[in-house]
Amino acid sequence: MQVFVVAATANSLAAAGRQLDMSAVMVGKHVSALEQQLGARLLERTTRKLTLTEIGASYLERCRDVLASVEAADNVAETLRAVPQGSLRVTAPVAYGAQRLVPVIHAYTATYPLVHVDLVLNDRVVNLAEEGIDVAIRSGKLADTGLIARPLARSRMLAAASPDYLRRHGVPAHPLDLERHNCLSFDSWGADHRWRFSQGETMVAVRAQGNFTSNHGHALLAAGLAGMGVVMQNDALLTEHLLSGAMVHLLPEWELPSRAVHIVRRPEPRPSAKVRSFVDFALARLG
What we know:
single chain; 9 helices; 13 strands; alpha/beta; two-stranded antiparallel sheet
């Protein structure tokens, strides 16, 4: 169609060939193939010029409209690819998303006001394609899904308790001291509820027992803030309360297990500007 429009406008197969960087013979073949497809002659050819038939003249105007629409659509796509805009669906684990990602999203939308971020908090692994997710935060070992993944700072587990609890029960000096404390644990960790501390090559497994378990980190944190006992939680949940003094980091010279965190997206060869900019923005602040 484009070859026909150029040839008809130039009134010459040779001139059209020069514009399209192809031979005059090839231009003629394109026009002939289009005429055969339509079942109508579009151009009358002589040795010196081309003349539009009646059908060709009408068809030329419609072709110009179609090509203009295609160009406009291409421009829209290019604009969307170049300028971050539109709806961006992001998913993340509940605690990480609420505590770490929301401040990043606030700064991102202030920088890119044409983007609307839809944050879906979920502790299960979400299928990005099936659920229309553009970007995901994944905690733990990544399955081989073919996604494009970039590492963020690891999520650290910390032991902490409220100042009120520590005044009443004392501050543990060694991980094994926790066996004499009321330790608040996830009910999914099994009957022994062991917390595993390390210091260099030294490993200590503590039987964390207490009078309260829960399947949700926020419930355990609330119990810890209320002075109910010692909690082991990820730093995304604890950092704000440690900085305010509402919780005290216990045994800071010992390490608890950490988990890898990645930001992932689908393997698009040319990701949209909103996806590309959000990934870069998050990496700069959480990497």
